[in-house]
Amino acid sequence: MEILLISGLSGGGKSKAASFLEDMGFYIVDNMPAGMILKFAEFCAAGSNRYSRIALVYDVRTADSFDEFLEVLSTLRQREYDCKLLFLKADVGVIINRYKETRRLHPLQEQAGSLEAAVRLEISLMAAVQEQADVVIDSSNYSTARLRGELLRFFGGKTSAGELMVSLVSFGFKHGLPLEADLVFDVRFMPNPFYIDSMRNKTGLDKEVRDYVFSFKETGQFLEKLRELLHFVLPLYKEEGKTVLVVAVGCTGGHHRSVAVTHALAEYLGSLGYHVTENHRDMTRT
Fold first, then answer.
1. Residue 161 has pLDDT above 60, yes or no
2. Domains in the chain: boundaries
3. What is the distance between the alpha carbons of residues 263 and 266, in angstroms, rounded to a whole number?
4. Is 163 helix (H, G, I), strand (E, B) or coil?
5. Domain 2-155: CATH superfamily, name plus number
6. What percent of the chain clears pLDDT 90, i.e. is strictly above it?
7. pTM for this prediction
8. Cβ pair 146, 165 in contact under 8 A
9. Rounded to whole angstroms, how far apart are CA atoms 157 and 25?
10. Per-residue DSSP letters for 116-141?
11. Cβ atoms within 10 A of the Cβ of 53, count?
């Protein structure tokens, strides 16, 4: 049985990591007290294959004693479990900004008196746990796609080892480039459905808009060349060891042309057997 203990700083990315690991087949339990971890592991080991991969989130919210957690970790490693500890952290300034964006209260803020003091206190308290980690991920400069890729690399298992995930993103140039993009393609040369009244309030996922965008010969030619390029470069990225490739397609507002082309690319790459995610960043923005 595979047991992954997820720990780290509040705001370091544990929740996102847990959701990605769940997609990878882990059974996730959040806020697991140290005293219950051994009993839960024994229960899972005696159960069905549903519990062959479990990930338990442990952090300062449930910590009565970090010594107890470290003892549990040592015991798990001595038993016949494949047990690893993942620790997620980020820079103090990054964590403060994340808390400001979510407007949540840090679990140690009332005790420490300020958000910065709470973050620094947690870093000090969690130092002993970080020292025992098998994998430490500093998510300070990680995009969502990169974090997923790192988790796939470390914990994807045999079925995901060496797998390349292609993250397709449509966007509007007026809202800025996606910072995580590896490849960016501009489709603003295509005729814009925005200027046709019946299509202005629709998106590139609507059949009327897609049919319009692809009714032009240039669109078909561009898509064919883009398919040829990706068909050529994706195996090379995979051979180089890249786990996530973010391909961004942009038009002016991110509602019509980029959405239609991104959706067509997702269907094509999916037919080739790649693990593809499709995200239309600005489709609902004005």
1. no
2. 2-155, 165-280
3. 5
4. coil
5. P-loop containing nucleotide triphosphate hydrolases (3.40.50.300)
6. 63
7. 0.59
8. no
9. 10
10. HHHHHHHHHHTHHHHHT-SEEEE-TT
11. 20
